[in-house]
């Protein structure tokens, strides 16, 4: 019954956050990765909003996503700019490739889509395995300070050919113990007053406390953790609505090891 980042929701994402959109994150990640000479990986690459600016700066970035529709849009956006990165279908908690990365980045809270704690931990361990010794993980999270079952919101977008896409979001579940919400998204596409396409999406989203997430990273083995708020490097968060970024390093082993 429910889809997940299928055709309409992927189209809306590209309409709502086209390439060139930034919330301060594009500049932040560009600056933090400027000294990377090796390969970078972006899990949950989406439509390429972060990937493409990094590629255009000459960085070597691969990307993957669980959604074929999102990846197809990303591929199209790259080809329009004559960019040809390695893109593939994969899950954060289970992807496995014979390659190590100098950095792995998960911007915009994408990591929180893993709403089961076990999957989150598996994903962090998987990132660790795919990093070079001394490699960095940079990852965004955010809190959900104002949620309640039944809360609703609505938005709409006009496509290039004049169709109207509407989205109604309803919070269907809030689990304060396991720390996640589940929203139901109803997408509808209208043309000349007639409904031509509809899509239902189940959208889970987890949250973590700041120090809780630091401890998770430490449990996996990450060190030298720096926490930033609203893309101001090293500035510890003070407000519940701030974007929180963690930068952490895989332990550098000596040659003898």
TrEMBL record:
Keyword vocabulary terms for this entry: Methyltransferase, Transferase
Domain Methyltransferase: 40-135
Position of the signal peptide: none
Single GO MF annotation: methyltransferase activity
GO biological process, one term: methylation
CDD domains with a match to the protein in the record: AdoMet_MTases
Pfam annotation, one family: Methyltransf_25
Protein name: SAM-dependent methyltransferase
